[in-house]
Design brief:
The complex is a heterodimer of chains A (114) and B (114).
Chain A (H helix, E strand, L loop, with lengths): L3 E4 L2 E4 L5 E7 L5 E8 L3 E10 L2 E4 L6 E3 L9 E3 L8 E8 L9 E2 L3 E5 L1
Parallel strand pairs in A: 2-11
Antiparallel strand pairs in A: 1-3, 3-8, 4-5, 4-9, 5-6, 7-8, 9-10, 9-11
Chain B lengths: L2 E3 L4 E5 L4 E3 L2 E3 L4 E8 L5 E7 L5 E3 L5 E5 L4 E6 L8 E9 L7 E2 L3 E6 L1
Parallel strand pairs in B: 2-12
Antiparallel strand pairs in B: 1-4, 3-9, 5-6, 5-10, 7-8, 8-9, 10-11, 10-12
Classes of the chains: A mainly beta (114), B mainly beta (114).
Chain lengths: 114, 114
């Protein structure tokens, strides 16, 4: 199993540009989520999904969109990038909605918005 | 809502010395507790978790943590650290019902001094 994969690893955008961060998992996990990591702030939940076709907002959803058309993929879209979105983004997945299930993290995407 | 506090942002420790990384949480309901490790330029990896039962939890790489309900703490310990333990460590909490939302602390950067 490849686990949780993310592309790209690095990205530089100009203010106002749009892009999609890709996330895929091959473990047949129901639950997937996106976090952003900023210095001194830990990881903050952006959006999450409990299954194909179902998404919900996390702690910091503004400026981001998600969709979940398949179990495997959970892309994160930035419609109009802003410098405040400069961060490291992590995708995670777990088997089901049970609170005891371990979340598996991808390697991250480092995004810089100029 | 739950919250996690990691008071130490950086902890320098000499090689082969013991270390304790502190974590305190706040929640009005019962919780599950986790420690994750992030090695440089990598995603997060689960070190250990407390779900129920014995309050002393053993994890990978010789780490252990003790759940103390009265002090609402979940400190991470290792009796003898190695250079390879250099990483950032995150404490996280999740309520024990329903959803998968993890709340992370701000992280502690462990630096091992040769």
């Amino acid at each position: 199993n490849a686990g949780v994969t993310q592309t790209p690893k690095f990205q530089v955008l100009k203010t106002g540009q749009s892009m999609t961060l890709q996330c895929a998992q091959d473990m047949n996990h129901e639950y997937m989520s996106w976090y952003r990591q900023d210095p001194g702030m830990g990881l903050r939940l952006i959006h999450y999904s409990v299954g194909a076709g179902i998404t919900d907002q996390g702690e910091v959803p503004n400026g981001y969109n998600v969709s979940r058309s398949t179990t495997e993929d959970f892309p994160l879209r930035l419609l109009s990038a802003a410098p405040s979105q400069t961060s490291v983004y992590f995708c995670a997945s777990s088997y089901s909605q049970g609170s005891y299930n371990e979340q598996f993290f991808g390697p991250g995407t480092r995004l810089t918005v100029l | 809502a739950q919250s996690v506090t990691q008071l130490d942002s950086q902890v320098p420790v000499f090689e082969e010395a013991p270390v304790e990384l502190r974590c305190n949480y706040s929640s009005s309901v019962s919780v599950y507790l986790f420690w994750y490790v992030q090695y440089p330029n990598q995603g997060l990896q689960l070190l250990l978790k407390y779900l129920s039962g014995s309050t002393l939890v053993k994890g990978i790489n010789g780490f252990e943590a003790e759940f103390n309900k009265s002090q609402t703490s979940f400190h991470l310990r290792k009796p003898s650290v190695h250079i390879s333990d250099t990483a950032e460590y995150f404490c996280a909490v999740r309520t024990n019902f329903g959803n998968e939302k993890l709340t992370f602390g701000t992280g502690t950067r462990l630096t091992i001094i040769p």
